[in-house]
Fold this sequence. Notes:
five-stranded antiparallel beta sheet, 6 helices, 5 strands, 26% strand
Amino acid sequence: MATLVAIGYPDETTATAASLEANRLAKDLIIQPDAIAVIIRDREGKFHVTTSHHAVGGGATWGMFWGLLFGMLFFVPILGMAVGAGLGALTGKIAKNAINKEFQERIREELQPGTSALFLVVESVTPDKAVASLSRFGGTVLKSSLPKETEEELQEALHGSPRQ
């Protein structure tokens, strides 16, 4: 089962530095992320998103996932996605099943102007090593698990079959 992890930072630069460390941890096989995203909310309140996708052939899926997630969380269209009837239904499934309201509210509270957050979708992790490496960046950890059935529904809706 994949887990969505979000870590909020009190400035605009730390999430980017932490994402570089997360990529290093992935290369060292300490974490196994499917996707990593950084969202920065500048002092004027505008959102800036950077994403990376680790699943081979999954780039479109994760790009759409981040677009739906950030659109749902912040009520702004991220990544310029066109949302048709199918994607609108998918947004409802994500909102209903995967990301609980408490998680949504905590993310919105955390990402005030002049802050940033690191988002990871992680398949597996060596907790002690990952925590030791990422703890030097500080931040507030928020976490929401994506249930297996919701992950499969997301994959099926976007690609026609679950990811292997």
